[in-house]
Amino acid sequence: MDAKQFFEKVWDDYIRVTPQANKINQLFKKKYGQVVNDHIAFRTFNLTPLSVGELEHFFFEMDYRFDKEYQFEEKKLYARSYVHPDESMPMIFFSQLLTEQLSKKSQIIISKLVEQINKTKIQDLGFFYSGLGWEMPTYDEYLVLLKESEYAAWLSVMGMRANHFTLRVSSITNALDLVEENNFLLNISGGKVKGSPQLLLEQGATLADSVLVTFKDGTKQSVPTCYYEFAKRYLDPSGNLYRGFVTSSADKIFESTNQGGI
Q: Are 43 and 93 in contact (CB under 8 A)?
């Protein structure tokens, strides 16, 4: 599977649980013609066999290379970004939850989930759009995770799939205005626009879609799925398009999947 095929597969899985993304994508195509995918993001736990360090080799096999790393102390996250020599290819942002920083109760719940992973299914890029690799947690377990880490709660019910795709835009305000005019809700944590021209990156995002799920104990509840992001990048001092990420902005973008947003 080459990179183009990979992103098509990931996109198909993503829009299945994030129908707003397909509608917004079509909206932008109709207004602007061609659209550019800036980056996609994945979430994981820092436990074997799911850690960033154990899974990133699949990106290298598509000719991606490691670019930068990021720390999110408040959210207990570590992330790496990857770039492709063909600059028309989207960047990849891969984050993991530092589970050892959670309470023992949350660690036990997460370990129980990860222990169910069938390692034989982690053979190729298909794992990145495989969804849940474990039984759904109970609703009480989900609430324990949610109280401590929205990221952990999201992963427990969504599994391995793209957390978001990102449209590269020429004007972040025009893009977000178009989204709002068509009745899609935006993440306003830290303001609609995160970042600035001085930081070489401006971003915004919708609030996540939602889906009704059945937990292990039979409880039915609506939970956040995924969201669509928008990014305006600027040229760096050397005249190259900035390909990094701004930690303070990404910290707020993560909140697009907060339970309170749906």
A: no
pTM exceeds 0.85, yes or no: yes
CA distances from 61 to 7, 50, 98, 101, 119 (A): 14, 17, 26, 31, 19
CA 45-257-119 angle, 5° bins:
25
Residue 190's alpha-carbon distances to 41, 170, 252, 262, in angstroms, are: 20, 21, 6, 18
Run of H or E including 53: helix 52-55
Q: What are phi and psi of 107, to 5 degrees?
A: -60, -40
Beta-strand relationship, 162-168 and 36-45: antiparallel
**What structural domains and CATH numbers belong to the chain?**
3-261 (3.10.180.50)
User: Cα–Cα–Cα angle for 74, 76, 82, nearest 5°?
Assistant: 110
pLDDT in tens, 22-46: 999 999 999 998 899 999 999 999 9
Token couple for 161: 């799939």
